[in-house]
Amino acid sequence: MPFVTLKLADEIFSEHTLDKKESLCIGRDRSNNIILNSVGISLFHAKIDTVGDNFLFSDLKSKNGSRVNGKAVKNHFLKHGDIIIIGTHTLFFEFDDWEKTIEPDENSLEQTMIIDPDKKKSLFKNVSISKVPTIATLSFLSLKQKSKLLKKKITVFGKNPDSDVVVKGFFVGKIAAVISQRPNAYYLSYLNGFIKPKVNGIKIKKHIKLKEFDIIEIGSLKMQLIIKEIL
After folding, report:
1. What is the C-alpha separation between 144 and 44, in angstroms, rounded?
2. What are the CA-CA distances from residue 126 to residues 102, 119, 121 (Å)?
3. Is the whole model's pTM more than 0.85, yes or no?
């Protein structure tokens, strides 16, 4: 079953397992499942519902809106590793057994998620699950720092001292960006701050799939991604 984690850097404030029979409600009112009691949060801000085998995040016409992976959204089918930003709060959507799930089509929001049993068998038969386990390392180029092994599913970069990788700079966000590990791939997502991360010299707007030897710049940090297969 998927779960939503509310945390700041490594500190987990709460963890919520999604129930397929009920909505997971998020907001300032105390009747919500996830209570975010801070300025800028609506009483009933957002919710997550089960739609077939998928999970749909919906912003409930909140005053200040919601973002998923840095993009303002009204409705969004969630995938493993998605990062939800509501006000100053960060929520991480993950699966316990995510490698066995099918990621939803982002363009299929208005489609009915009902699949014929025979077609469903064929669909699962053609799904390619992570073939070769990999592990990634960040090799720092701009400062005399030791390489960092990306052991966690989500690595946080930012000015906050509790970040996995602390990035200095006036225009760097407290939680500036994250690298998330997904099946056989790593993604870099921009979260906040005036300066956006760069990959191979190009600023990213939201998130990007990383390739081996990509040069990543976040604030004053410059690093190269090295990916190795686990034998």
Report:
1. 47
2. 11, 11, 9
3. no
